[in-house]
Amino acid sequence: xxxxxxxxxxxxxxxxxxxxxxxxxxxxxxxxxxxxxxxxxxxxxxxxxxxxxxxxxxxxxxxxxxxxxxxxxxxxxxxxxxxxxxxxxxxxxxxxxxxxxxxxxxxxxxxxxxxxxxxxxxxxxxxxxxxxxxxxxxxx
Length: 140
Prior knowledge:
single chain, elongated
């Protein structure tokens, strides 16, 4: 069974022997929704992705390509970026409220704990970057 991948269309910005820099337009899943103008979620963002240069085929600057990532890596990123910080926030707030701290103190401590969490993620960014490997393929 083939592994599911998430694909984005992109344009090559630069090519060197080790890496290809690709510009992709990331659209939210609700891009076709009739209420996307009212909702802040339905927007597009231009991102640059660095992809290891494959041995073949040859790629040129300006070429339209697909950039792929295993879907499981995307799910892992959602957990790291959204789900775990929410758990940290709610856990800290819950523990402090049970311990008798005021709501203001519990809320600020929860926000502080999430800030520490994201700082730790930032410190581990190189290790995380090594786990998220994009692949490139030509448009046919």
